[in-house]
Amino acid sequence: MTRQKIGELLLNNSTIVLFIILFIVFGLWSPRFFLPENMVDIVKQAAFTGIVAVGMTFVLLTGGIDLSVGSNMYLSAVVAGLLINSSLQLAILPALLVTLLIGVVIGAFNAFCVVRLHILPFMTTLATLVICRGLGTALTSSQQIDFPESMNTFGQIQLLGIPMPVIVFLIVIAVAYFILVRTPLGRQIYAVGNDREVAKKAGINTGRVLTSVYMMSGFCAALAGFVLVSQLGGRLDHSFAQGNEFDAIAAAVLGGTSLFGGVGNVLGTVIGALLIQMVQTGLSFNLVNLYLQPMVQAAIIFLAIFFDSLRAGNLKRLKRRFIRPLEAGR
Amino acid sequence: MSDLLEIRNITKSFFGVPAVKDVSLAVSAGQVLGLIGQNGAGKSTLMNLIGGVVLQDSGEMFFKSQPYHPRQPADAYEVGIAFIHQELNLFMNLTIAENIFISNFPRRGFLRTIDRAAIHQRTHDLLQSVGLDLSPEMLVERISPGERQLVEITKALYQDASLIIFDEPTTSLTARETERLFAIIRQLKTGGKSVIYISHILGDVLKLSDSVAIMRDGQLVALDTVNNFDINRMISLMVGRSIEQLYPPRTATPSEKQVLVLKHISSPGVVEDINLTLNEGEVLGIFGLMGSGRTELARMIFGLDPFEGGEILIDGKPMRDPSARTSIRHRMAFVTENRREEGLLMNIDIANNIGLVALPTFARTALNIVDRNSLMEAAREMVKALQLRSGNIEQQSAKSLSGGNQQKVVIAKWLLSEPAIFIMDEPTRGIDVGAKYEIYSLINQISAEGSAILIISSELEELIGICDRILVMSRGEIFGEFTRDQFHDERILRAAFREQELPNTDVHHDAIIQTENT
Amino acid sequence: MSIIDKPANAEVLRVRAKPSAPPRGFSLQRAVRRLIISDYFVLYLTVLFFFVSAIFFPVLRAPVNLANQIQNMWPLLAVAVGETFVLIIGGIDLSVGATMGLTSVVGAMVMATKLDPAFFDKSPMWGILMHPEGGLLGGSDWAVPAAVITMLVIGMSIGFLNGYAITRFNLAPFMVTLVTSTFVSAFALWLTQSRNISGIPDAFVTLGKGDLISIYLGPKLTSDIARRDILPLITYPFIISVGLAGMAQFMLSRTIFGRNMFSIGTNRRTSEISGLPNRRVTLRVYMFSGFCAAVASILYSARLAIGQPSLGGGNLLLDVIGAAVIGGTSLFGGKGSVRGTFFGVAFFVLLLNILNAMRLSPFVIDAVKGLVILTAALLDVTRTRLVNMENRA
Predict the structure, then answer these.
(1) B302 touches chain C (CB under 8 A)
(2) Per residue in A278-326, pLDDT tens?
(3) Distance between CA B333 and CA B420 in Å, rounded?
(4) Distance CA B162, CA B151 (A)
(5) Which residues on A lie below 8 Å from C180 (Cβ)?
(6) 3-class secondary structure, B502
(7) Per residue in B487-505, pLDDT tens?
(8) Residue B399 in contact with residue B407, Cβ under 8 Å?
(9) Pick from B435, C42, C296, C364: CA 20 to 30 A from residue B491's CA?
(10) C182: which chain A residues are within 8 Å (Cβ-Cβ)?
(11) Other CB atoms within 10 Å distance of the CB of residue C72
(12) How far from chain centre, in Å, is Cα B200?
């Protein structure tokens, strides 16, 4: 009985268990892995995917999907870069605001297609993925954009020794957690994800809820894009953040978010993002062949979704309606 | 006493077919109005008109003496009309408290966060008032179907609605929960609230209502105080004919050959030591209340759910590797209780639905090409034999058929595979009286041709009408067996309630005549 | 077939229309509706689109251009047919592009006639499959057939892994094929260390470029006809791809397997209870998708005369899913046809051609392509609504 319970406990927290095991494995492999600087570095590197994944979690919770985030990161950063480098010579902060605005507008466009035109989120965001990447490369003629030194300085900001990306990540986590758990909108997002029709009948403005999640996802993507540029020494080329949407989805799903909506939370997503990044860092740390890294990563993601399905099956079995008491007798 | 809701000469047509014709009725404060009628009689449309889901073509409505023109469900909610639907409108992934307040959370503080303390206090009080001893923090997915129904009612109470419309609220309730619901309705009435109670359990309607409205073919055929009705009168008004013809005479006699034998089937927490035999040409009924394990047992026999102990013998041979495919290979058929999700391909045409199970028999050549001509011919024969009313069976989707005809498609699909053992779970649920009669005749006919039929129902009257033998299930066990000469509704019900004191015996006695269910 | 369909549709519409609809302008509305619902709508649209564009861009009508554009269709058609199958059973296969990359590379490794050590000596296959004097069977008569079979087998194996994970462990197809895609494309890059493999034998290249029947439209009695004036008509890719599509259409519309696919895509539970072999069908469909991706890979690799690990990267997935959706395949499953996908592919190729003729930059073309997909999806939404309205009558 207890053994079964332990098994269940492990299964229910499979991502955390996987995280701890890999953490120890990497550490034993190369003890320098445990150094605090490295820990901070993992969190810092995880911040970009993490921020996007938090936005993605909102969309997934409603049963949608946002494939456009990678291109969104690129396009919004491109516009900011062009404005900074143009005769306007926009400063960093206004440029950040412009970036965020563009991200939100892309999100709003996605929402418009999904809510008003009733196009499936998958098709909508697959199309915006291509559109945004195309617009971005067209705007830059596929050239690299070099941001001024001020962008680099912005990227090096620290607060109490915590690097800027980590601070931004923490703020995003806190705000997202707050929205999902403490505000009516957050609860309504879960409600819409559970059953959109019922939500409508219950008087929830489902259009508004859906619009807000895509806008939040767009916002997070743009924010992550801007922060990432500042970390790359202010260089932005046409493959920037390409494929990032899949990392974000993987992070959310690893964290227990369902692709079918209604299930998931921000903290899980954060753990998922950290897991993905830790694997990457751990592999590079141990000088694993660069070509092998994505394969190992894919295998670990597979393992995680596999455990997730075991957990779901187990949960279903536990939830089966019992008609009579388990022990014979009464 | 002034009328709370008054409907005057309201009419609504869909594509030229009138669904509600010139209906006028009124509900006054503190009154319970029972509304009954067959499937398609126009009850749902009438309720949709009141709820603002559809707009009337002509006629008008008044609420609290003010003209009332709902354009969307929110308008009904606004003036104080609440609906308790048959299918529950709850979010499984949220707590009870969140479900009640989802569209209107009280907020507090600078950040306008949800005032958790307040909603928990309110929810706690509301739950107390309906006698539910649950934590407001409980996730809805973890409470029983009956409790969910009560939570739904709690929601209406919270909205402080002055008119609450119940549409078949008791289908998922246990006897005790039903009693609790009735107590709440009486309580509402004393508190000056009005109730429209729609149900097919006519006894309940008689017991609860102050007056009764009966609809047929979109028209109001009767509206009077409850004293002027009895069950027979209600049925004949609903059907337009008397009830003698509800069941076709049972003529066939079963043989002695056992085709299906269950030996000590057990599954912890679900069913315990089930023994059962089914003979060739026999119609065996399984009666039980909601949650007695009858559906679970049927699913085990058909290989959809696992069981841990015992064995299933078909024609004396034990069945191995239980699965739907194995069962079909052993010439079993299974009409599930949920025909939309488990019986039909709603978006696919009727012919292909009929051909679904027997499709491999229409394979030609090594490439497994479908012999369309013989498939169509077989489908057409089925349509004729079952008197299935449809248009072009190659083009019309199953979705477009009425409930009764949909059920006939499901039966046709299985008949085409020529089953020896036919399991039917609630085959007449959601079907109107006329179509029910046809389904009963079919069951008769199928058994006369030598198939064994296992029929599960919560309508005792129906089982008594068509079965050779009835087994009673209760809490996962078989708790009584009755042959045709022993059929006695009160005794069977007593077994279902495990010989405990029978709640409202007088009502259930011969009144569980459900005419439809949707 | 359309001739038979139309009167029936019209009949339904007339009956339905009687009561409420306003009489004025109704026949036009009816005609538009009928057009949109028609199975051939995309084809009409493509043809119309072509003629309108041809007025503005004469280059479109040039026989050389036409012949080239038609040749562009075949590899895309092959992979889109596989994806259509997966979409019909309500799944999705994101790994087709990666499958194409890997099969391309492995095929080249089997049959290449020479490999430059400077490029490949770091490859894990160096010395095993790859030698300075070529691939495993480089130079042998069997090299090309062996390579083709290897490619097909690898494609089907990847499909098998997808299908097995989906059916056996009940995993979401989206996640499974996403992971497969990541893994397989990384594997292809690792095998070749990101290099393209050249030295492909001519026999293989013929599969992508060779033709059976060509036509010459120039002046008569010319003794030497320039190569570019010869227009390929019936090419090997045409035969392979259209053959594959024809077989797929046959499977889909005539066999038990095809019927089962639609049933499973419409309602998995009903299908299972009705005794359909859900798992087997699902597994085979994913294998077929892998097979189709391998065929597309053969056609592309042969045309390019290289083994390319990044083949099938970029926006291929959009083209594939876009073509299927434009052709009326539903992402929810239970709806779709090979014929529709064929029209969708034709539409896509034509669109690309027009955008190129307009001399737009490739990036703008991407953006426009995205918009077209959106429009197509919107069209599908409209169409579904119209059909539902019909059915309700």
Answers:
(1) yes
(2) 988 888 877 777 888 888 888 888 888 888 788 777 766 665 555 555 4
(3) 8
(4) 18
(5) 298
(6) coil
(7) 887 788 777 776 544 444 3
(8) no
(9) B435
(10) 246, 294-295, 297-298, 301
(11) 17
(12) 10
